[in-house]
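Re: weekly structure request thread

Next one in the queue (129 aa):
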Amino acid sequence: METTATFALNFRTAAIQKSNEKQSHAAFRAVNYPLLAGANENVLMRRLLEDPALRAAYVSAVTGAMAVAQADQWLETELTRQYALIRDAGRADTLKLATNDEFEQAFATLIGFARARPAFVLKELAALR
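Done, posted below.
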């Protein structure tokens, strides 16, 4: 039976491999994935951006979140914590969907994302001010 850690490793590895094929979940797609991708198709987001006060509140909230993300490196810390939990089980799994090297590369990619995304988002927000 597959352990929870092995399942998590296999699931995340498969998700990374398919990230360029699917549009359904873009949270970790790419560092430079547009902040407002799909905003025009989303009625609520489009209306929020059209209202100056709501737009300013959105920019303020996201700016604050990025400041926190940069200050304490929360995402990088959380990714590293979870990686430490599953690394040994994932490497030992003989039925995994990816090689150990692919697993390590996926983790390195996530860390790179965690380090670079806040600066990109802040740059994107500048255009909304």
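Confidence is low (pLDDT under 50) at residues 19-24. Residues 100-126 form the longest helix (27 residues).
Next request, please.
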